[in-house]
Amino acid sequence: MTDIGDEISPPANPTTNDLSVLVLHGPNLNLLGLREPGIYGVSTLEQIDRKLVEIGRSLQIQVHCLQSNHEGILVDAIHDARGRYHGIVVNAGAYTHTSVAIRDAIAAVSIPTVEVHLSNIYKRESFRHHSYLAPLVIGQISGFGANSYYLGLQALVAHLAASEC
Fold first, then answer.
1. Are 159 and 87 in contact (CB under 8 A)?
2. What pLDDT is recorded for position 17?
3. pTM of the model
4. Which one of 25, 117, 149, 150 is the catalytic residue?
């Protein structure tokens, strides 16, 4: 399980300088760089996480990254995000298409969430075309490889900043 970033408790009335974002990676994403590079690219999860933290610093926000192959750990992380993080970027991997539990956790915490995917899930097998998360998230970005994460983080931060106005 990859766990990168600073754990912080955000203040009650955040400004952009105080924002914190949780990035969740689902099953098999720990194998990025090795797993089907023609579909998922050659970047490793560690490289993506380092870049996300770096982008976060440039945006003056805290980024905390967590990967798990276990659905319950992802659900617990979403629950624990309440009061700690202002937003979530999630690539639930295969759980996108199967997990009502992750969907319900996102609904329960009411934290602005962006769904990302490395590949374009709509150009792949038909079972990947349905996302249980899509109706709940503020947006979905797919098909841009590792850039899907970076674009998702930037879009989430822009959304959070606009919400403060």
1. yes
2. 57
3. 0.87
4. 117
